[in-house]
């Protein structure tokens, strides 16, 4: 059985981990990236697409399992992604939920997780807010607004630039003051357990660049993600975030069957009172896991060996095959 993925995001980690677990590997990539990926010996086969419809055909031609990541739906679009016919690791039914910010926040709220207050309309804004676009755009287009006037102005700009069609396409959340922490988890149906696989913070331009020149440059902050930085949390924070994770998995099991399978992330702000506010989730492997190709401080606690999330995915697949339970970890 072949492990395959789309050439972007965390493809190197995914395929490196698959090779470590003994699987042949295939990458589906656009022509402009083929030369880059050929630099890595753990990639066995290359399938180069000419257009996005061709990419789906090439994905479906692989005899194995596709590992999704954050760029899959963002590149192919939800309709093409739903036309993928080979087994996908994890829950493909989450894709449509992840592409809708309101439905994402509904899942978090139903889990009893503390989330920022949301505003249905710019007219309702009465405090500093952050306005976000749907999908995995790496923070592109996000902006802060201190009042309804600034919010309307920014939303109109997004419409003019064709990032969105209407104000209904954005999510408006209160801006919670604190530090961002992105908690990476892996839910294993094979072991029936939530594993903390790591955490990170995102290096965002230009909001992080403005810290170097406070009060000097009159520039609006933006939130385009350029990289990730490792972080370890105070151990006293972990019981609360595990409680959130367990609730979230149970809610998805009830509302988006079969629920979370494999890697996911709860994206949070930790306040000065050490409250954890979850403002977003990702239902697949996140780019911050690329920090830990040799394993994170947390993955070592479970496995006592180098275990990236990419390798953890293939370890789950391998054990599932051995137990004749591949259907429990793929959809």
UniProtKB/TrEMBL annotation:
EC numbers, comma separated: 6.3.4.23
UniProt KW keywords: ATP-binding, Ligase, Magnesium, Manganese, Metal-binding, Nucleotide-binding, Purine biosynthesis
Binding annotation for 5-amino-1-(5-phospho-beta-D-ribosyl)imidazole-4-carboxamide: 9, 71, 228
UniProt domain ATP-grasp: residue ranges: 92-322
Enzyme class name: ligase
Molecular function, one GO term: ligase activity, forming carbon-nitrogen bonds
Superkingdom of the organism of origin: Archaea
InterPro entries to which the protein is assigned, alphabetical: ATP-grasp, ATP_grasp_subdomain_1, IMP_biosynth_PurP, IMP_biosynth_PurP_C, IMP_biosynth_PurP_N, PreATP-grasp_dom_sf
GO biological process annotation, one example: 'de novo' IMP biosynthetic process
Catalytic reactions of this protein: 5-amino-1-(5-phospho-beta-D-ribosyl)imidazole-4-carboxamide + formate + ATP = 5-formamido-1-(5-phospho-D-ribosyl)imidazole-4-carboxamide + ADP + phosphate
Pathway field: Purine metabolism; IMP biosynthesis via de novo pathway; 5-formamido-1-(5-phospho-D-ribosyl)imidazole-4-carboxamide from 5-amino-1-(5-phospho-D-ribosyl)imidazole-4-carboxamide (formate route): step 1/1
Binding positions (ATP): 204
Function: Catalyzes the ATP- and formate-dependent formylation of 5-aminoimidazole-4-carboxamide-1-beta-d-ribofuranosyl 5'-monophosphate (AICAR) to 5-formaminoimidazole-4-carboxamide-1-beta-d-ribofuranosyl 5'-monophosphate (FAICAR) in the absence of folates.
Family statement drawn from the similarity comment of this UniProt entry: Belongs to the phosphohexose mutase family.
PANTHER family reported for this sequence: 5-FORMAMINOIMIDAZOLE-4-CARBOXAMIDE-1-(BETA)-D-RIBOFURANOSYL 5'-MONOPHOSPHATE SYNTHETASE, 5-FORMAMINOIMIDAZOLE-4-CARBOXAMIDE-1-(BETA)-D-RIBOFURANOSYL 5'-MONOPHOSPHATE SYNTHETASE-RELATED
The protein, known as: 5-formaminoimidazole-4-carboxamide-1-(beta)-D-ribofuranosyl 5'-monophosphate synthetase
The species this protein was found in: Candidatus Acidianus copahuensis
Phylogenetic placement of the source organism: Archaea, Thermoproteota, Thermoprotei, Sulfolobales, Sulfolobaceae
Gene designation per UniProt: purP
């Amino acid at each position: 059985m072949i492990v395959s993925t789309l050439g972007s995001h965390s493809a190197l980690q995914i395929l490196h981990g698959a090779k470590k677990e003994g699987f042949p590997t295939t990458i589906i990539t656009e022509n402009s990236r083929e030369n880059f990926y050929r630099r890595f010996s753990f990639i066995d086969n290359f399938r180069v697409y000419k257009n996005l419809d061709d990419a789906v055909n090439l994905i479906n031609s692989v005899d194995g399992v596709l590992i999704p990541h954050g760029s899959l739906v963002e590149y192919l679009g939800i309709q093409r992604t739903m036309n993928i016919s080979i087994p996908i690791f994890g829950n493909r039914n989450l894709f449509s939920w992840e592409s809708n910010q309101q439905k994402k926040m509904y899942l978090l709220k139903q889990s009893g997780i503390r989330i920022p207050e949301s505003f249905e309309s710019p007219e309702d804004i009465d405090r500093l807010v952050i306005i976000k676009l749907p999908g995995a755009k790496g923070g592109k287009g996000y902006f802060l607004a201190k009042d309804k006037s600034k919010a309307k102005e920014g939303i109109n700009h997004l419409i003019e630039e064709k990032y969105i069609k209407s104000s209904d396409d954005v999510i408006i959340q209160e801006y919670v003051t604190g530090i961002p922490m992105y908690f990476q988890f892996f839910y294993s149906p094979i072991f029936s357990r939530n594993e903390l696989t790591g955490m990170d913070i995102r290096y965002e331009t230009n909001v992080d660049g403005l810290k170097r020149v406070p009060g000097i440059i009159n520039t609006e902050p933006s939130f385009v993600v350029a990289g990730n930085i490792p972080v370890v949390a105070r151990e006293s924070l972990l019981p609360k975030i595990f409680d959130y994770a367990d609730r979230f998995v149970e809610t998805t099991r009830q509302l988006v069957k079969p629920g979370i399978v494999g890697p996911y992330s709860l994206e949070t702000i930790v306040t000065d009172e050490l409250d954890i506010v979850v403002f977003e989730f990702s239902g697949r492997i996140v780019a911050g896991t690329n920090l830990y190709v040799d394993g994170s401080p947390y993955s070592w606690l479970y496995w006592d060996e180098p275990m990236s999330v990419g390798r953890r995915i293939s370890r789950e697949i391998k054990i599932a095959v051995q137990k004749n339970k591949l259907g429990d970890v793929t959809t």
